Predict the structure of EVE domain-containing protein.
Amino acid sequence: MAYWLVKSEPDAFSWDQQVANGVEPWTGVRNAQAALHLKAMAKGDKAFFYHSNVGKEIVGIVEVVRTAYPDPTDETGRWVCVDMKAVRPVPRPVTLAAIKAEPALAEIALVRQSRLSVMPVSAAHWALLCRMGGAD
DNA sequence: GCCAACGTTGGC
DNA sequence: GCCAACGTTGGC
């Protein structure tokens, strides 16, 4: 099983909405690198749900329940989306500041490529972030 | 609100 | 195919 981190602006789509909806298509990715990551996701993979701009913190954990298929919000038909299901909240949201302050996370894509909206997370980083968030 | 990073577009 | 101009993202 692989681990990921996906970003959403809470003004557009928040963790609360994800929880309320249960399963939700993760649409709107219009970046080639992020799309490659979407296509690499397998059913059962887990992802951190990160709030960009507002909050700037990991607030929950979601699971991939449907692998990549054409994004219904994309009229060109070139981009894909996946379906995500809310698994559980992160009890103590892990802020970007806390991630930057942790030397073991210096290489994480969230810090190194701030504009990427879908990125892989190593098993070691996943475990550490879960511990930091009280989501063991 | 500003700015850095970076992807995209269009002229040549 | 290069590169300047421009638009968008996202942190501060």
Observations:
- Residues 109 and 120 of chain A are 8 Å apart (CA to CA).
- The two ends of chain A are 17 Å apart (CA to CA).
- Helices of chain A lie at 15-21, 32-40, 96-101, 109-112, 123-132.
- Residues 3-132 of chain A form a domain with the ph1033 like fold fold (CATH 3.10.590.10).
